[in-house]
């Protein structure tokens, strides 16, 4: 009887230990899935509706908020971060912090970072802009009815899952602009890719910001940074309006010392323009502007430049080539969401670009979460895993040896892709995500670390 009792207890302990081991393995698998999401993620109905072309909508920008474009919104989130996962590995990989941030880096002009100046507050703008972003309804009314409606109410309730160290700031505030330039300089990024609409135009939740460009250029120059332009989609954007846009930008800003120019293989120094949502304009229209024989050609004129198209689907690579673009970028910080944003596709895209004399500019990001403005879009969240997601993206980018790497983003708070400093914050029932157990500047440090690694590897590629 005694032996039977001992054996029974032994079997119970064994079962408990086995169950705990299985739970541990499941937890690890979930963390790995976050880093490398399903390749089928883009085919999910939640993903398909986020891009205008894939919704089969004919209006150019009837509702930009329904695209995965730069989600301009905030919602408080109750999603918990994977604190503790890979924490020891992160600490081991962090750069030394015994120097001032300014001493850690010099600008890397092959590191481009997307930057937004659409934020406003009562002190500088008379009202909140973008921080009070509305909650966007799902396109299916049955699903939309299951989620809250309304808009955010700053400064405690903002349209983001994280909370900025600078608070609900205004992009017009000189102290904010300077702080941003310091942070980007400390991260060893070199080129600011400035979100831009033509004068008098803006996104649906913002106001015109072209007047800020000169100020951004001045502050960028102070920190040895360069500025290029991320031309946003707007109503009736076509070859003629784009010609006028480029002419306006070069005429007005091209003489500034902070205006970015890229040295081509032929020795020319040309401006560069990223064209967001380029795929919603047919190749024939782009070819009018971007090919030598085009009716509205900009080639071999004083306004010639490098034009970089957004690649979402695989077939877009052929359209980009036919259109006369000089390269492609992937923008989204959501590994697995689209063909272009999936790390495992970057090698084939780089090979296509190499064989067609195009630039391939992969976009890396620290994570993605937009449930503050799209509460139904949990499926496309990419957890930061204490920085490991970001490092995985950088590793994938370096493997294809690109001429330029772009970073999504410095401060797209609505989509949770920012590397700007964020702080823990709890207001009532709202709990914002944060960068703990690391400091608010952890993603700036990681960017600086990979900028230096990229610089060293590029030297080896050229040998």
UniProtKB/TrEMBL annotation:
Gene3D superfamilies, sorted: Glycosidases (3.20.20.80)
This protein's record includes keyword Transmembrane: yes
EC number: 3.2.1.130
Molecular functions (GO terms): glycoprotein endo-alpha-1,2-mannosidase activity
Cellular localisation: Golgi apparatus membrane
Signal peptide: none
Family the UniProt entry places it in: Belongs to the glycosyl hydrolase 99 family.
Protein name: Glycoprotein endo-alpha-1,2-mannosidase
């Amino acid at each position: 009887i005694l032996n039977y009792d001992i054996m029974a207890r032994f079997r119970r302990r064994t079962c408990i230990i086995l169950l705990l081991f299985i739970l541990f393995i499941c937890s690890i698998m979930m963390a790995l899935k976050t880093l490398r999401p399903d390749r089928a993620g883009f085919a999910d109905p939640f993903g398909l509706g986020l891009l205008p072309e894939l919704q089969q909508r004919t209006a150019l920008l009837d509702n930009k908020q329904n695209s995965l474009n730069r989600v301009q919104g905030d919602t408080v989130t109750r999603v918990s971060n994977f604190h503790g996962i890979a924490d020891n590995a992160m600490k081991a990989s962090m750069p030394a912090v015994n120097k001032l941030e300014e001493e850690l880096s010099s600008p890397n002009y092959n590191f481009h970072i997307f930057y937004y100046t659409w934020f406003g507050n009562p002190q500088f703008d008379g009202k909140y802009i973008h921080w009070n972003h509305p909650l966007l309804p799902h396109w299916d009314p049955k699903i939309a009815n299951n989620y809250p409606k309304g808009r955010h109410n700053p400064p405690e309730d903002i349209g983001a899952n994280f909370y900025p160290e600078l608070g609900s700031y205004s992009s017009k505030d000189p102290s904010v602009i300077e702080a941003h330039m310091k942070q980007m300089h400390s991260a060893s990024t070199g080129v600011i890719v400035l979100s831009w609409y033509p004068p008098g135009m803006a996104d649906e939740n913002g106001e015109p910001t072209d007047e800020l460009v000169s100020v951004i250029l001045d502050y960028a120059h102070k920190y040895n940074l360069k500025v290029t332009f991320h031309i946003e989609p707007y109503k009736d954007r076509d070859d003629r309006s784009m010609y006028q846009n480029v002419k306006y930008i070069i005429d007005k800003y091209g003489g500034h010392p902070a205006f970015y120019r890229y040295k081509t293989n032929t020795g020319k120094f040309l401006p560069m323009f990223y064209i967001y949502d380029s795929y919603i304009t047919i190749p024939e229209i782009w070819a009018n502007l971007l090919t030598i024989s085009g009716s509205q050609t900009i080639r071999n004129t004083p306004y010639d430049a490098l034009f970089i198209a957004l690649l979402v689907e695989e077939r877009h690579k052929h359209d980009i080539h036919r259109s006369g673009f000089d390269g492609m970028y992937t923008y989204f910080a959501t590994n697995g969401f689209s063909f272009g944003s999936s790390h495992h596709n970057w090698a084939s895209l780089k090979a296509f670009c190499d064989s067609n004399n195009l630039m391939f500019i992969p976009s890396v990001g620290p994570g993605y979460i937009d449930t503050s403005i799209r509460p139904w879009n949990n499926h496309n969240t990419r957890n930061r895993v204490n920085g490991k997601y970001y490092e995985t993206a950088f590793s994938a980018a370096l493997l294809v040896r690109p001429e330029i790497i772009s970073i999504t983003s410095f401060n797209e708070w609505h989509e949770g892709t920012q590397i700007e400093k964020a702080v823990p914050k709890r207001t009532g029932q709202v709990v914002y995500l944060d960068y703990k157990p690391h400091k608010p500047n952890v993603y700036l440090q990681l960017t600086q670390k990979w900028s230096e690694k990229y610089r060293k590897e590029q030297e080896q590629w050229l040998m």
